[in-house]
Specification:
47% of the residues lie in helices and 10% in strands. The protein has 225 residues and is of the alpha+beta class.
């Protein structure tokens, strides 16, 4: 990936993306932006110390937040992916509508159980194992669907980007258990391919937290700048 610090004088010539490296929602926004060759200024956020400017753009206080040069704001990751598609109708989005229901299932039901599995101490009367198994039922549905290396086919695409960051979090909740669970082999191979894919490694580079008045990072995985 090509990235470099940029001066404040150029910042409004580009969209500005507030992001947090490990957030699955921010991951899929960065994936869509990178794979559609869109250049943005990336501002890495510390969630315990969110920039006032980001909060002024989006009161919900979560990443990603995309601030466009015309002043408009997109603060939902799925909408940022759709915006990226509108700017560059890449073949990676060829199956954008094919798995809409599956994406919604992952965003809602799977994520609900994932949170109560991975962060069970934050929820009263939450049984982590029960929520692990309920989320696993959705992974079994994905297992039945996967007939090629990716949902998109032979190459990763929209649906893969929309879902895999959450599957990654599911594995992280108990890596030993996940890696030794043998009943979803295609799903595990799918996730492993994603984790080893250079496109994912590119968007997971570490950047210092952005501070008011400091330059941002020029973010794009396709161009040498």
């Amino acid at each position: 990936m090509s990235s470099q610090f940029i001066s404040n004088t150029s910042q409004r010539e580009l969209p500005i993306l507030y992001s947090f490296r490990r957030c699955p929602y921010a991951m899929r926004a960065r994936l869509a932006i990178a794979e559609t060759n869109i250049i943005v200024e990336l501002r890495e956020v510390l969630l315990r110390n969110k920039p006032e400017h980001m909060l002024s753009l989006s009161s919900k206080g979560t990443v990603p937040v995309l601030w466009l040069p015309d002043g408009s704001v997109i603060d939902e990751s799925y909408d940022i992916m759709i915006w990226a598609l509108s700017k560059n109708n890449s073949s990676i989005f060829s199956n954008k509508t094919e798995y809409t229901e599956l994406i919604a299932l992952v965003e809602n039901k799977f994520k609900y159980h994932l949170d109560r599995y991975k962060y069970s101490s934050r929820f009263s009367n939450s049984n982590a194992t029960e929520h692990r198994d309920l989320a696993l039922e959705i992974l079994h549905q994905i297992e039945d669907i996967l007939n090629e290396p990716w949902l998109n086919g032979v190459n990763p695409g929209f649906s893969d980007f929309a879902i895999l960051p959450f599957v990654r979090q599911y594995r992280i909740a108990d890596i030993d258990w996940f890696d030794n669970f043998n009943k979803i082999p295609k799903t595990k191979a799918w996730l492993n391919d994603f984790l080893e894919w250079n496109g994912f490694k590119d968007i997971m580079q570490k950047y210092p937290p952005w501070k008011e008045g400091l330059p941002g990072v020029l973010f794009n995985s396709k161009y040498e700048l």
